[in-house]
Amino acid sequence: MPDLNQIILAVDDNPDSLKxxxxxxxxxxxxxxxxxxxxxALKILNKVSPHLxxxxxxxxxxxxxxxxxxxxxxxxxxxxxxxxxxxxxxxIVKGLTAGxxxxxxxxxxxxxxxxxxxVHINNAKLTSxxxxxxxxxxxxxxxxxxxxxxxxxxxxxxVFIDNFSSKDQSHFTQWLANAQxxxxxxxxxxxxxxxxxxxxTTSEGAHLIKFKSHDLKLETxxxxxxxxxxxxxxxxxxxxxxxxxxxxIAQILSISERTVNKHLEQIYRKLGVNNRTSxxxxxxxxxx
Length: 288
Known about the structure:
The protein folds into 3 domains: about 5-135, Rossmann fold (3-Layer(aba) Sandwich); about 140-215, Beta-Lactamase (2-Layer Sandwich), CATH 3.30.450.20; about 230-285, Orthogonal Bundle (Arc Repressor Mutant, subunit A), CATH 1.10.10. The chain is about 50% helix and about 20% strand. It contains 12 helices and 10 strands. A 5-stranded parallel beta sheet has the order 2-1-3-4-5, with helices on both faces. Strands 7-6-10-9-8 form a 5-stranded antiparallel beta sheet. Helix 8 packs across helix 9 (about 230-240), helix 9 (about 230-240) crosses helix 11 and helix 9 (about 230-240) crosses helix 12 (about 275-285).
């Protein structure tokens, strides 16, 4: 018996089909919402978040394939099962390409329908739990296609992506096209630096990306307190740890290279080290 809070959206332009789905699912404990068109389904999804969508492939005006593509833009993790009388391979492939997770051929076998609904809702829950676990441990991940479009993402990674400016998005897409494992990209977002790491390519050809945001103000305060440096020394040390040269640090902080060198001398003395590598290592350890 499913959780009473599980909601299914059934979309079909045939009233009789909707009636059968409503009654069948209702008898087995699901809360069922119905829509007789793709447009109506999208309106419902703006107000309600179901656990699964049952979607007729052939409908007038907006068919199920187009409807599914639009659903996936706003709800990438929502499982969609196609229902149709079409059983040719090309139609099945078209449905799965549009974002469907499964395909049921009409007339529906109710036992098969219920079994697949249960499986895909449980799979979606597992996926959601995994993503929450990744976010909670700081593993903000996303899988994207070659155009930089999201296939799946953790909640926090989606926030980072949503905050991209048009310039950031263009820069990111260009980087993604040529990125290889362990490549990284930095994007400035207000007081934070977003570091994007290319992890690998999945077996399906998706790009797996990891995001990590570094709050410069917070990092400066952390180094100042943990390593007992001045605010300006902490500023220099942060950029030193990021691998910047003296000249680059001078440009970033709007000071002279000579001043950077003076700060580095004080930093080495306070930390008890005598080179950039050792100072950077201590800074990274403090920040972690």
